[in-house]
Amino acid sequence: LILDEPMTGLDPTGIAEFKEIIREQKKAGRTVFFSSHILAHVEEVCDTVGVIVKGKLRVEDNLDSIKREFLRKAGYTIVIETNRPVDWSSAELSVSPLGENKYRVVASRDVREELHDFVANQGAKILTMQVKEPSLEEIFLKLVG
User: How many CB atoms lie within 10 A of CB 52?
Assistant: First the structure.
């Protein structure tokens, strides 16, 4: 099935119903190919994505692989929350406070294991850790920019 901008003009209920139809087709083993400029919709229902810029296919892969590659190139933003304050002065990381015992870490590589060790060495524990994943829109803008 090939569709061009299939969700354009649909109300929120129609969009939700259309997405469900796409998911059902996917479960049935069918391929649905569609184009859309609303990248959030693409991100919700597609497992394989292709980005065409000026008539050339710039990237085609499963969405998780595209995001991992983007993180590898653009860097990681990790938000952590600890059970008590942490002194980051000796850390060789870019850390900024976000609130009480909550911090944003920006790194050129995946430093989650290092963060666990650094925090543990100060007698603290990480309560939550979240790697900020790029949206498909952010990736697209980077590809066309």
Answer: 12
